[in-house]
Specification:
373 residues; alpha+beta; Hypothetical upf0131 protein ytfp; Nucleoside Triphosphate Pyrophosphohydrolase; 3 domains; eight-stranded mixed sheet; six-stranded mixed sheet; 9 helices; globular
Length: 373
């Protein structure tokens, strides 16, 4: 049975990535319906809504494969295979299977604008589809439906990485020029990805390295903020249970950290820290200033930190317990003088690298901030 696709999947490059093949496509129109978006960004597939005298634009798959419906449902995070109806292709009405969702536009739904969606979300949607479809047949659809936002965040990290740091001292050769990935080997695919691969690279002496087998931990970009009140010279830290210390065998796995969170797909890191300050500490920041942008552990992980100083009025702040129940967060906040925080760096009680780094950054900038307070 031929299939009618609309919204995001009516973009042939994305459809090809989801189906795993290039399909034979024709422009088509579904009478009595219109395509609406829900503001879901790269993960918004568009939805068909009943509209009198409407006509939803899309594509007709002329050479359907038995797995097409399952693959599209897997990408969209749905379990609906659709229903059979008639669509107009050229001058003919033909039967096709269509994923019909809502009877009427929901709250916040807007008419689908394909050109605008492509401009804003097209590249991210392609990378997200690569992440999602890599797990097709391995990760259950119900679990994948919950992983979709995180895989979009992982794809967004690749987009953010396309603007590299300066190369005044280090080698300016790009990965495209100096690194060759020879083959990928099976690795874990889930919330995190363990990528196993064989590679070779250009050496500092200009020669080519031998073939090397490596494994890497594919993670996310995170945004971190250290709230600081220059008028009172206090910082706000948070504390939570961390799994790294548990896995290492540390008998005290509760860790002092800056406020932080994963950067959602398409989200500006600065927007992320403003959101996380409210969610984790109940704090509205007055202003944020960039600190550093760094890899957490570049030897084996793609994890990347966007670090900010958050200026805030902490004079009446009351430390307590917060976090989102939906994300199983149990977070305690601590309001400390700067000197007390630095003493914890010296004693080793602050043993999370990002927090120590950010406090040392603040130590250099503190005098100027206090003078302007």
């Amino acid at each position: 049975m031929r299939r009618f696709v609309f919204g995001a999947l009516a973009w042939p490059p994305l459809l090809e990535r989801v189906l795993g093949r290039a399909a034979d496509l024709r422009p088509a129109r579904l009478p009595g319906y219109a395509v609406y978006g829900t503001g879901g960004g790269a993960l918004d597939p568009g939805t068909l809504c009943a509209v009198p005298d409407g006509g939803a634009e899309g594509l007709l798959i002329l050479d359907p494969d038995p797995e097409d419906g399952a693959r599209m449902a897997y990408f969209n995070g749905t379990d609906a295979d659709g229903m059979v109806t008639e669509v107009r292709c050229g001058g003919d009405l033909v039967s096709a299977r269509v994923a019909l969702h809502d009877d009427a536009p929901g709250d916040g739904a807007l008419p689908w604008d394909q050109a605008r969606w492509l401009e804003e979300w097209g590249p991210l949607a392609l990378d997200t589809a690569r992440n999602i479809m890599a797990q097709y047949g391995q990760t259950e659809p119900a679990r994948m439906a919950g992983l979709r936002p995180y895989l979009a965040a992982r794809a967004w990290a690749r987009q953010l990485a396309r603007t590299p740091a300066p190369a005044e001292v280090r080698m300016a050769t790009t990965a495209e020029e100096g690194v060759e990935i020879l083959r990928d080997r099976p690795g874990h695919e889930g919330f995190f990805r363990l990528r196993a691969f064989d590679m070779r690279h250009r050496r500092f002496d200009g020669a080519q390295s031998p073939e090397i087998g490596r494994e890497g931990f594919v993670a996310y970009d995170a945004a971190l903020v250290l709230p600081y009140d220059p008028a009172t010279d206090h910082v706000l830290l948070i504390e939570q249970l961390r799994y790294g210390p548990i896995l290492r065998g540390d008998p005290r796995p509760w860790v002092l950290e800056p406020v932080a969170g994963l950067v959602d797909g398409g989200e500006d890191p600065e927007t992320c820290v403003l959101r996380e300050a409210v969610e984790e500490a109940g704090l509205t920041l007055r202003e944020v200033q960039p600190m550093v942008r760094v890899y957490a552990s570049p030897g084996y992980s793609s994890e990347f930190f966007h670090c900010y100083l958050g200026l805030a009025d902490l004079s009446s702040y009351e430390a307590g317990v917060g976090g989102l129940d939906a994300e199983h967060e149990d977070i305690r906040s601590h309001l400390l003088s700067f000197d007390r925080a630095m003493a914890l760096v010296d004693s080793g009680e602050i043993n999370a690298g990002p927090l120590a780094m950010m406090l040392l950054w603040l130590a250099r900038a503190r005098a100027g901030l206090r003078a302007g307070a």
